[in-house]
Design brief:
- This protein has about 80 residues and is mainly alpha-helical.
- About 60% of the residues lie in helices and about 0% in strands.
- The protein has five helices and no strands.
- The longest helix is centred in the N-terminal third of the chain and has 26 residues.
């Protein structure tokens, strides 16, 4: 049984698996974006409490981190 026969017989299943992977990938990126959109979220991973406190008490506190430090979907970095 060659790879061509395998693909030919299981085209539907392989297509469904590919769709599921794509949907999961997009969903996880949207979830990450939603969870990290707020400036408070940065404190969960980065040591920046003094900078956050300074930002919070400044006149720029209405401008979120994302405005100057954009999130790039599909670049989830696990550390």
């Amino acid at each position: 049984m060659g790879i061509r026969n395998f693909v030919r017989r299981r085209k539907g299943i392989l297509f469904l698996i590919a769709i599921i992977i794509v949907v999961l990938y997009i969903g996880l990126n949207l979830l990450a974006y939603g969870l990290t959109y707020k400036p408070e979220a940065c404190l969960a991973c980065h040591i920046m409490k003094p900078y956050y406190d300074n930002w919070k008490s400044s006149s720029h506190n209405k401008v979120g981190c994302i405005e100057c430090h954009p999130y790039r979907p599909s670049t989830i970095v696990l550390s």
